[in-house]
Amino acid sequence: MNKRVNRLAFKAQVEQRHEANPLLKMPGDAALVHRGVLRSLVMACPDGCGELLTINLDARSGKAWRTYGSHEELSLFPSVWRQTGCKSHFILWRSKIYWCDWDDELDTPMADVVELVRGRLSNELVPYVEIADALQLVPWAVLSACYQLIRKGLAQEGKSDLRGHFRRAESLG
Fold first, then answer.
1. Is the confidence at residue 104, as pLDDT, over 70?
2. Contact, 155 vs 144, CB < 8 A?
3. Does the pLDDT value for residue 93 go beyond 60?
4. Do 45 and 26 form a contact (C-beta atoms < 8 A)?
5. Which of 30, 74, 106, 115 has its CA 20 to 30 A from that of 97?
6. CA distance 63 to 43
7. Per-residue pLDDT at 101
8. Which CATH number is associated with domain 111-168?
9. 81 C-beta neighbours (distance < 10 Å), count
10. What is the arithmetic mean of pLDDT over 120-129?
11. Residue ranges per domain, the chain?
12. Sign of the dihedral through C-alpha 38, 74, 142, 146
């Protein structure tokens, strides 16, 4: 079995994709490709399979991931799900890698994020990504806050096709 890592190790920012290759020696090592705008994140697969991943960050060239934060605390949205090779599936949030098949729980967000999300919830189910966009927050932070609000009995999640949609908890009285 491969040795998975749980953290991104940022190595450098480069101009050309091929400049990243010699920098990526260990699982989770990563470099950003930036030519005028962010183009891609190149990383040694954190699964330890030995493959290099190129994650598109430039919407002009097709489906692109959103980036949040800095090199030290980089977040991507949506999750990275490899359809080939090792088929790993993970979330990158604040440079920490959460494995989707290991039931890793996202870090509990700060209290102010929970309160911002709570204030944004209404009686209607709303996708957490929409809440995140409105609050200009990383979607993973909003999702984590929503689950914390559920545990406190203050929010509800939709069922079936509406999973990932949240609203204020219905009053019990």
1. no
2. no
3. yes
4. no
5. 115
6. 18
7. 74
8. 1.10.10.10
9. 11
10. 95
11. 9-99, 111-168
12. positive
Q: How confident is the model at residue 172 (pLDDT cuts 50, 70, 90)?
A: very low
Q: What is the largest CA-CA distance in the chain?
A: 63
What is residue 79's DSSP assignment? -
| H or E element in which residue 127 lies | strand 126-127
Name the CA radius of gyration of the chain, rounded. Answer: 18
Q: What is the pLDDT of residue 28?
A: 97
Residue spans of alpha helices (H) in 91-136: 111-120, 128-135
CB 70 within 8 Å of CB 61: no
Instruction: Answer whether the bond into residue 78 is a cis peptide, omega within 30°.
Output: yes
Cα–Cα distance list, 102 to 3, 27, 34, 90, 167 (Å)? 14, 18, 32, 10, 27
Q: Are the C-beta atoms of residues 70 and 63 closer than 8 Å to each other?
A: no
Residue 107 pLDDT: 59
pTM higher than 0.85: no
Q: Could you tell me the CA-to-CA distances from 57 to 17, 160, 173 in Å, in that order?
A: 13, 30, 48
Strand 29-35, strand 9-14: pairing: parallel
Cβ neighbours for 23, distance < 8 A, ≥ 6 positions apart? 11, 12, 14, 29, 31
The answer, yes or no, to whether residue 137 has pLDDT greater than 90, is no
Task: Say which residue the tokens 């050309």 belong to.
Answer: 16
